[in-house]
Amino acid sequence: AGGKFSRKKPHFNIGTIGHVDHGKTTLTAAITKHLSEQGGGKFMDYSQIDKAPEEKARGITISTAAADHCIFSTSSTRLLLVIMPTSINMITGAAQLDGAIIVVSATDGQMPQTREHLLLAKQVGIKKLLVFINKVDQVDDPEMLELVEMEMRDLLSQYGYDGEQTPIIMGTALAALEGRDPERGSKKIQELMDAADTWLDVPARDLDKPFLMYVEDVFSISGRGTVVTGKVERGTITKGADVEILGLGAKIKTTLTGIEMFHKELDRGEAGDNMGALLRGIKREQVRRGQVLVAPGSIKSVKKFKAQIYVLTKDEGGRYTPFMSNYRPQLFIRTTDVTVALTFPPGTEGADEKLVMPGDNVEMVGELVHDIALEAGSRFTLREGGKTIGTGLISEVYE
Ligand code: GDP
Fold this sequence. Notes:
Blueprint: E1 11-18, H1 24-37, H2 46-51, H3 53-57, E2 71-73, E3 80-85, H4 88-93, E4 99-105, H5 112-123, E5 129-134, H6 142-158, E6 168-170, H7 173-178, H8 186-199, E7 212-214, E8 217-221, E9 225-234, E10 236-238, E11 242-247, E12 250-261, E13 264-266, E14 268-270, E15 274-279, E16 292-294, E17 300-311, E18 323-324, E19 330-333, E20 336-343, E21 355-356, E22 361-374, E23 379-384, E24 387-397
Parallel strand pairs: 1-3, 1-4, 4-5, 5-6
Antiparallel strand pairs: 2-3, 7-9, 7-16, 8-9, 9-15, 10-14, 11-12, 11-16, 12-13, 12-15, 17-22, 17-24, 18-21, 19-20, 19-23, 20-22, 23-24
The structure holds guanosine-5'-diphosphate.
Protein backbone atom coordinates (compact mmCIF):
# COMPACT_ATOMS: atom_id res chain seq x y z
CA ALA A 1 0.00 0.00 0.00
CA GLY A 2 0.96 3.61 -0.35
CA GLY A 3 1.69 6.09 2.37
CA LYS A 4 5.32 5.14 2.87
CA PHE A 5 7.68 7.99 3.17
CA SER A 6 10.43 7.85 0.64
CA ARG A 7 12.87 10.32 -0.77
CA LYS A 8 13.61 8.03 -3.69
CA LYS A 9 10.38 8.91 -5.40
CA PRO A 10 9.77 12.61 -5.67
CA HIS A 11 6.56 13.81 -4.07
CA PHE A 12 4.30 15.27 -6.66
CA ASN A 13 1.07 17.03 -5.80
CA ILE A 14 -1.40 16.78 -8.62
CA GLY A 15 -4.93 18.11 -8.83
CA THR A 16 -7.89 17.67 -11.10
CA ILE A 17 -9.05 21.08 -12.25
CA GLY A 18 -11.75 22.29 -14.63
CA HIS A 19 -15.33 23.45 -14.91
CA VAL A 20 -17.89 22.43 -12.33
CA ASP A 21 -19.64 19.11 -13.05
CA HIS A 22 -17.19 18.09 -15.74
CA GLY A 23 -16.07 15.20 -13.54
CA LYS A 24 -13.10 16.23 -11.38
CA THR A 25 -14.28 14.34 -8.32
CA THR A 26 -15.35 11.28 -10.29
CA LEU A 27 -12.00 11.18 -12.07
CA THR A 28 -10.10 11.52 -8.80
CA ALA A 29 -12.08 8.65 -7.31
CA ALA A 30 -11.54 6.59 -10.47
CA ILE A 31 -7.79 7.17 -10.33
CA THR A 32 -7.58 6.19 -6.67
CA LYS A 33 -9.59 3.07 -7.45
CA HIS A 34 -7.42 2.15 -10.39
CA LEU A 35 -4.14 2.68 -8.57
CA SER A 36 -5.36 0.93 -5.45
CA GLU A 37 -6.21 -2.13 -7.52
CA GLN A 38 -2.60 -2.17 -8.58
CA GLY A 39 -1.45 -1.90 -5.00
CA GLY A 40 -0.44 1.71 -5.36
CA GLY A 41 -2.57 3.23 -2.62
CA LYS A 42 -5.93 3.26 -0.94
CA PHE A 43 -9.24 3.72 -2.75
CA MET A 44 -11.24 6.78 -1.79
CA ASP A 45 -14.81 6.68 -2.92
CA TYR A 46 -16.61 9.69 -4.33
CA SER A 47 -18.20 10.74 -1.04
CA GLN A 48 -14.93 10.61 0.84
CA ILE A 49 -13.29 12.86 -1.69
CA ASP A 50 -16.08 15.28 -2.24
CA LYS A 51 -16.60 15.94 1.44
CA ALA A 52 -13.40 17.70 2.26
CA PRO A 53 -10.86 17.54 -0.50
CA GLU A 54 -8.54 20.02 1.11
CA GLU A 55 -8.51 18.09 4.38
CA LYS A 56 -8.06 14.72 2.76
CA ALA A 57 -5.50 15.79 0.28
CA ARG A 58 -3.06 17.64 2.40
CA GLY A 59 -0.73 14.72 2.75
CA ILE A 60 0.23 15.71 6.25
CA THR A 61 -0.19 13.11 8.89
CA ILE A 62 1.30 14.55 11.96
CA SER A 63 -2.05 14.68 13.68
CA THR A 64 -4.53 13.15 11.30
CA ALA A 65 -4.85 9.82 9.62
CA ALA A 66 -6.14 11.11 6.32
CA ALA A 67 -2.95 11.26 4.39
CA ASP A 68 -2.46 7.60 3.65
CA HIS A 69 -5.61 7.75 1.63
CA CYS A 70 -4.30 10.01 -1.02
CA ILE A 71 -0.73 8.98 -1.62
CA PHE A 72 -0.26 6.84 -4.67
CA SER A 73 2.47 5.28 -6.63
CA THR A 74 1.99 5.14 -10.33
CA SER A 75 2.99 1.85 -11.87
CA SER A 76 6.36 3.00 -13.08
CA THR A 77 6.93 4.29 -9.55
CA ARG A 78 8.57 7.42 -10.87
CA LEU A 79 6.28 9.70 -8.89
CA LEU A 80 4.58 9.55 -5.56
CA LEU A 81 1.29 11.18 -6.41
CA VAL A 82 -0.79 13.13 -3.97
CA ILE A 83 -4.01 13.53 -5.86
CA MET A 84 -7.04 15.70 -5.18
CA PRO A 85 -9.89 17.46 -6.90
CA THR A 86 -8.97 21.07 -6.65
CA SER A 87 -11.24 23.83 -5.55
CA ILE A 88 -10.60 27.35 -6.66
CA ASN A 89 -9.23 28.24 -3.25
CA MET A 90 -6.58 25.61 -3.55
CA ILE A 91 -5.46 26.90 -6.91
CA THR A 92 -5.42 30.49 -5.77
CA GLY A 93 -3.85 29.43 -2.50
CA ALA A 94 -1.24 27.85 -4.71
CA ALA A 95 0.50 26.14 -1.86
CA GLN A 96 0.04 22.68 -3.18
CA LEU A 97 0.00 21.83 -6.84
CA ASP A 98 2.97 20.66 -8.89
CA GLY A 99 0.85 19.50 -11.78
CA ALA A 100 -2.74 19.22 -12.86
CA ILE A 101 -5.16 17.21 -14.93
CA ILE A 102 -7.64 19.51 -16.59
CA VAL A 103 -10.97 17.76 -16.95
CA VAL A 104 -13.27 18.76 -19.80
CA SER A 105 -16.65 17.24 -20.44
CA ALA A 106 -17.07 16.07 -24.02
CA THR A 107 -20.67 17.23 -23.86
CA ASP A 108 -19.86 20.90 -23.16
CA GLY A 109 -16.28 21.39 -24.31
CA GLN A 110 -14.35 24.25 -22.75
CA MET A 111 -16.26 26.56 -20.39
CA PRO A 112 -15.34 29.76 -18.49
CA GLN A 113 -13.87 27.85 -15.54
CA THR A 114 -11.79 25.75 -17.92
CA ARG A 115 -10.13 28.97 -19.05
CA GLU A 116 -9.96 30.45 -15.55
CA HIS A 117 -8.28 27.32 -14.18
CA LEU A 118 -5.81 27.22 -17.06
CA LEU A 119 -4.88 30.82 -16.41
CA LEU A 120 -4.46 30.19 -12.70
CA ALA A 121 -2.47 27.02 -13.27
CA LYS A 122 -0.05 29.06 -15.33
CA GLN A 123 -0.04 31.82 -12.76
CA VAL A 124 0.91 29.51 -9.91
CA GLY A 125 3.75 28.07 -11.93
CA ILE A 126 2.40 24.71 -13.11
CA LYS A 127 4.58 23.94 -16.11
CA LYS A 128 2.77 21.02 -17.70
CA LEU A 129 -0.79 19.75 -17.74
CA LEU A 130 -2.65 16.65 -18.78
CA VAL A 131 -6.09 16.82 -20.35
CA PHE A 132 -8.86 14.30 -19.70
CA ILE A 133 -11.86 14.66 -21.99
CA ASN A 134 -14.54 13.04 -19.89
CA LYS A 135 -18.08 11.72 -20.45
CA VAL A 136 -17.30 10.32 -23.89
CA ASP A 137 -20.13 7.86 -23.26
CA GLN A 138 -22.53 10.76 -23.79
CA VAL A 139 -21.23 11.80 -27.17
CA ASP A 140 -21.82 9.56 -30.19
CA ASP A 141 -20.28 11.75 -32.85
CA PRO A 142 -16.50 11.20 -33.12
CA GLU A 143 -16.16 14.53 -34.92
CA MET A 144 -17.53 16.26 -31.88
CA LEU A 145 -14.77 14.67 -29.77
CA GLU A 146 -12.16 15.75 -32.28
CA LEU A 147 -13.48 19.27 -32.11
CA VAL A 148 -13.26 19.36 -28.30
CA GLU A 149 -9.68 18.09 -28.54
CA MET A 150 -8.71 20.65 -31.17
CA GLU A 151 -10.23 23.46 -29.16
CA MET A 152 -8.40 22.31 -26.06
CA ARG A 153 -5.09 22.27 -27.92
CA ASP A 154 -5.73 25.84 -29.07
CA LEU A 155 -6.67 26.93 -25.59
CA LEU A 156 -3.56 25.34 -24.07
CA SER A 157 -1.37 27.22 -26.53
CA GLN A 158 -3.24 30.42 -25.85
CA TYR A 159 -2.38 30.15 -22.16
CA GLY A 160 1.27 29.35 -22.74
CA TYR A 161 1.11 25.55 -22.53
CA ASP A 162 2.35 23.13 -25.15
CA GLY A 163 -0.84 22.67 -27.14
CA GLU A 164 0.71 20.23 -29.57
CA GLN A 165 2.43 17.83 -27.20
CA THR A 166 0.20 17.85 -24.15
CA PRO A 167 -1.34 14.39 -23.78
CA ILE A 168 -5.11 14.47 -24.23
CA ILE A 169 -6.90 11.33 -23.10
CA MET A 170 -10.56 10.66 -23.82
CA GLY A 171 -12.61 8.40 -21.63
CA THR A 172 -15.27 8.07 -19.02
CA ALA A 173 -14.36 8.49 -15.40
CA LEU A 174 -17.74 7.22 -14.26
CA ALA A 175 -17.37 3.94 -16.15
CA ALA A 176 -13.89 3.50 -14.68
CA LEU A 177 -15.23 4.16 -11.20
CA GLU A 178 -18.13 1.77 -11.66
CA GLY A 179 -15.98 -0.90 -13.29
CA ARG A 180 -17.83 -0.88 -16.61
CA ASP A 181 -16.67 -0.41 -20.19
CA PRO A 182 -12.95 -1.01 -19.61
CA GLU A 183 -12.05 0.17 -23.11
CA ARG A 184 -13.21 3.69 -22.32
CA GLY A 185 -12.93 3.36 -18.53
CA SER A 186 -10.03 1.75 -16.69
CA LYS A 187 -7.81 1.53 -19.78
CA LYS A 188 -8.06 5.28 -20.20
CA ILE A 189 -7.21 5.84 -16.55
CA GLN A 190 -4.12 3.71 -17.06
CA GLU A 191 -3.22 5.79 -20.13
CA LEU A 192 -3.65 8.91 -18.06
CA MET A 193 -1.32 7.60 -15.35
CA ASP A 194 1.23 6.52 -17.94
CA ALA A 195 1.06 10.00 -19.41
CA ALA A 196 1.53 11.49 -15.93
CA ASP A 197 4.62 9.35 -15.48
CA THR A 198 6.20 10.28 -18.76
CA TRP A 199 4.98 13.79 -19.45
CA LEU A 200 5.02 15.59 -16.11
CA ASP A 201 8.34 16.90 -14.86
CA VAL A 202 9.26 16.98 -11.24
CA PRO A 203 9.76 20.68 -10.58
CA ALA A 204 13.25 21.78 -9.70
CA ARG A 205 13.19 22.37 -5.98
CA ASP A 206 14.97 25.41 -4.65
CA LEU A 207 17.20 23.67 -2.15
CA ASP A 208 19.86 26.35 -2.01
CA LYS A 209 17.59 29.25 -1.09
CA PRO A 210 16.73 30.21 2.50
CA PHE A 211 14.10 27.98 4.11
CA LEU A 212 10.46 29.02 3.68
CA MET A 213 7.36 27.03 4.55
CA TYR A 214 3.72 28.13 4.29
CA VAL A 215 1.74 27.55 7.44
CA GLU A 216 -1.40 25.67 6.49
CA ASP A 217 -2.53 24.34 9.80
CA VAL A 218 -1.62 24.46 13.46
CA PHE A 219 -2.09 21.69 15.99
CA SER A 220 -1.40 21.26 19.60
CA ILE A 221 -0.14 17.79 20.44
CA SER A 222 -0.37 16.98 24.09
CA GLY A 223 2.96 16.35 25.72
CA ARG A 224 4.84 17.64 22.69
CA GLY A 225 3.75 21.17 21.96
CA THR A 226 2.68 23.11 18.92
CA VAL A 227 3.06 21.72 15.45
CA VAL A 228 2.59 23.66 12.24
CA THR A 229 2.06 21.87 8.97
CA GLY A 230 2.59 23.08 5.45
CA LYS A 231 4.56 22.77 2.29
CA VAL A 232 8.21 23.72 2.13
CA GLU A 233 8.50 26.21 -0.69
CA ARG A 234 12.25 26.41 -0.74
CA GLY A 235 15.43 25.60 1.13
CA THR A 236 16.17 22.88 3.64
CA ILE A 237 15.80 22.71 7.39
CA THR A 238 17.26 20.48 10.05
CA LYS A 239 16.09 19.64 13.54
CA GLY A 240 17.38 22.22 16.01
CA ALA A 241 17.50 25.10 13.53
CA ASP A 242 16.38 28.62 14.39
CA VAL A 243 13.28 29.73 12.54
CA GLU A 244 11.03 32.75 12.45
CA ILE A 245 7.23 32.83 12.36
CA LEU A 246 6.33 35.76 10.15
CA GLY A 247 3.26 37.63 8.96
CA LEU A 248 -0.18 38.77 10.15
CA GLY A 249 1.41 40.93 12.80
CA ALA A 250 3.85 38.29 14.06
CA LYS A 251 7.63 38.14 13.99
CA ILE A 252 8.58 35.46 16.50
CA LYS A 253 11.91 33.64 16.77
CA THR A 254 11.84 30.02 17.85
CA THR A 255 13.59 26.69 17.38
CA LEU A 256 12.38 23.81 15.31
CA THR A 257 12.56 20.80 17.59
CA GLY A 258 11.03 18.11 15.40
CA ILE A 259 10.14 17.30 11.79
CA GLU A 260 7.56 14.77 10.73
CA MET A 261 6.39 13.54 7.36
CA PHE A 262 3.93 10.76 6.60
CA HIS A 263 4.06 9.50 10.20
CA LYS A 264 7.83 9.35 10.24
CA GLU A 265 10.25 11.44 12.22
CA LEU A 266 13.00 12.98 10.15
CA ASP A 267 16.07 15.07 10.80
CA ARG A 268 15.70 17.16 7.71
CA GLY A 269 12.99 18.69 5.55
CA GLU A 270 13.42 20.17 2.11
CA ALA A 271 11.68 22.08 -0.65
CA GLY A 272 8.70 20.15 -1.98
CA ASP A 273 8.02 18.33 1.29
CA ASN A 274 4.67 18.49 3.02
CA MET A 275 5.86 18.47 6.60
CA GLY A 276 4.95 19.07 10.18
CA ALA A 277 7.26 21.19 12.32
CA LEU A 278 7.34 21.05 16.09
CA LEU A 279 8.14 24.46 17.56
CA ARG A 280 9.77 25.15 20.92
CA GLY A 281 7.90 27.30 23.43
CA ILE A 282 5.18 28.38 21.02
CA LYS A 283 1.53 28.40 22.01
CA ARG A 284 -1.07 27.30 19.50
CA GLU A 285 -2.61 30.79 19.49
CA GLN A 286 0.68 32.36 18.41
CA VAL A 287 0.70 30.74 14.98
CA ARG A 288 -1.91 30.99 12.22
CA ARG A 289 -2.56 29.74 8.74
CA GLY A 290 -1.30 32.37 6.35
CA GLN A 291 1.94 33.02 8.19
CA VAL A 292 5.24 31.57 7.04
CA LEU A 293 7.99 29.73 8.84
CA VAL A 294 11.31 31.01 7.53
CA ALA A 295 15.04 31.17 8.00
CA PRO A 296 15.34 34.25 10.26
CA GLY A 297 15.70 37.50 8.34
CA SER A 298 15.36 35.92 4.90
CA ILE A 299 12.10 37.62 3.88
CA LYS A 300 10.14 40.67 5.04
CA SER A 301 6.54 40.89 6.04
CA VAL A 302 5.05 44.01 4.42
CA LYS A 303 1.77 45.77 3.77
CA LYS A 304 2.70 47.72 0.66
CA PHE A 305 3.98 46.60 -2.72
CA LYS A 306 3.99 47.34 -6.43
CA ALA A 307 2.79 44.70 -8.91
CA GLN A 308 1.96 43.94 -12.50
CA ILE A 309 -1.67 42.85 -12.59
CA TYR A 310 -3.64 41.04 -15.29
CA VAL A 311 -7.41 41.54 -15.07
CA LEU A 312 -9.42 38.53 -16.25
CA THR A 313 -12.03 38.98 -18.97
CA LYS A 314 -15.60 37.82 -18.50
CA ASP A 315 -14.87 34.83 -20.75
CA GLU A 316 -12.21 33.82 -18.27
CA GLY A 317 -14.74 34.03 -15.45
CA GLY A 318 -13.68 37.55 -14.45
CA ARG A 319 -15.41 40.92 -14.15
CA TYR A 320 -17.83 42.31 -16.72
CA THR A 321 -17.08 45.91 -15.80
CA PRO A 322 -13.96 48.04 -15.26
CA PHE A 323 -12.73 49.24 -11.86
CA MET A 324 -11.08 52.43 -10.63
CA SER A 325 -8.31 53.44 -8.25
CA ASN A 326 -8.83 52.34 -4.65
CA TYR A 327 -10.59 49.14 -5.70
CA ARG A 328 -10.50 46.66 -2.80
CA PRO A 329 -10.57 42.99 -3.75
CA GLN A 330 -9.22 40.07 -1.72
CA LEU A 331 -5.59 39.11 -2.37
CA PHE A 332 -4.85 35.37 -2.24
CA ILE A 333 -1.31 34.21 -1.82
CA ARG A 334 -0.07 30.84 -0.61
CA THR A 335 -2.34 29.82 2.26
CA THR A 336 -3.83 33.20 3.04
CA ASP A 337 -6.08 35.94 1.77
CA VAL A 338 -6.07 39.58 2.82
CA THR A 339 -8.02 42.62 1.63
CA VAL A 340 -5.94 44.91 -0.56
CA ALA A 341 -6.54 48.47 -1.79
CA LEU A 342 -5.25 48.95 -5.34
CA THR A 343 -4.18 52.37 -6.58
CA PHE A 344 -2.16 53.63 -9.53
CA PRO A 345 1.53 54.34 -8.91
CA PRO A 346 2.28 57.89 -7.74
CA GLY A 347 2.43 60.34 -10.64
CA THR A 348 -0.03 58.44 -12.85
CA GLU A 349 -1.84 60.99 -14.99
CA GLY A 350 -5.60 61.25 -14.46
CA ALA A 351 -5.45 58.54 -11.79
CA ASP A 352 -8.77 59.58 -10.29
CA GLU A 353 -10.77 58.97 -13.46
CA LYS A 354 -8.67 56.18 -14.90
CA LEU A 355 -10.44 52.86 -15.55
CA VAL A 356 -8.95 49.37 -15.50
CA MET A 357 -10.77 47.20 -18.04
CA PRO A 358 -11.16 43.41 -18.01
CA GLY A 359 -8.30 42.12 -20.16
CA ASP A 360 -5.91 44.91 -19.10
CA ASN A 361 -2.36 44.40 -17.92
CA VAL A 362 -1.61 47.20 -15.49
CA GLU A 363 0.94 48.26 -12.90
CA MET A 364 -0.60 49.10 -9.52
CA VAL A 365 0.36 49.71 -5.91
CA GLY A 366 -1.28 47.47 -3.34
CA GLU A 367 -1.83 48.19 0.32
CA LEU A 368 -2.87 45.27 2.49
CA VAL A 369 -4.90 45.47 5.69
CA HIS A 370 -2.49 42.97 7.34
CA ASP A 371 1.20 42.43 6.67
CA ILE A 372 2.28 39.21 4.96
CA ALA A 373 5.62 37.82 3.82
CA LEU A 374 6.17 39.10 0.28
CA GLU A 375 9.04 39.69 -2.07
CA ALA A 376 9.64 40.66 -5.67
CA GLY A 377 8.62 37.72 -7.81
CA SER A 378 5.78 36.56 -5.52
CA ARG A 379 2.62 35.72 -7.43
CA PHE A 380 -0.90 36.28 -6.18
CA THR A 381 -4.52 36.14 -7.23
CA LEU A 382 -7.25 38.72 -6.77
CA ARG A 383 -10.81 37.65 -6.03
CA GLU A 384 -14.06 39.40 -5.34
CA GLY A 385 -17.50 37.99 -4.54
CA GLY A 386 -16.45 34.42 -5.29
CA LYS A 387 -14.87 35.30 -8.64
CA THR A 388 -11.25 35.40 -9.69
CA ILE A 389 -10.81 38.85 -11.17
CA GLY A 390 -7.08 39.15 -11.58
CA THR A 391 -3.62 37.71 -11.16
CA GLY A 392 -0.47 39.57 -10.23
CA LEU A 393 3.28 39.46 -9.97
CA ILE A 394 5.03 41.60 -7.34
CA SER A 395 7.80 43.81 -8.68
CA GLU A 396 8.76 45.68 -5.53
CA VAL A 397 7.97 45.62 -1.81
CA TYR A 398 7.99 48.65 0.47
CA GLU A 399 8.62 48.73 4.21
P1 GDP B 1 -16.94 17.96 -10.56
O1 GDP B 1 -17.90 19.04 -10.15
O2 GDP B 1 -16.08 18.41 -11.70
O3 GDP B 1 -16.16 17.36 -9.44
O4 GDP B 1 -17.86 16.79 -11.21
P2 GDP B 1 -18.32 15.41 -10.60
O5 GDP B 1 -17.21 14.44 -10.55
O6 GDP B 1 -19.08 15.66 -9.35
O7 GDP B 1 -19.32 14.90 -11.75
C1 GDP B 1 -20.47 15.62 -12.12
C2 GDP B 1 -21.54 14.67 -12.64
O8 GDP B 1 -21.09 14.06 -13.84
C3 GDP B 1 -21.84 13.53 -11.68
O9 GDP B 1 -23.23 13.31 -11.68
C4 GDP B 1 -21.09 12.35 -12.27
O10 GDP B 1 -21.71 11.11 -11.96
C5 GDP B 1 -21.19 12.64 -13.75
N1 GDP B 1 -20.08 12.03 -14.50
C6 GDP B 1 -18.75 12.08 -14.18
N2 GDP B 1 -18.04 11.41 -15.11
C7 GDP B 1 -18.92 10.94 -16.01
C8 GDP B 1 -18.78 10.16 -17.22
O11 GDP B 1 -17.70 9.75 -17.64
N3 GDP B 1 -19.93 9.88 -17.89
C9 GDP B 1 -21.16 10.31 -17.47
N4 GDP B 1 -22.23 9.99 -18.20
N5 GDP B 1 -21.33 11.04 -16.35
C10 GDP B 1 -20.22 11.35 -15.63
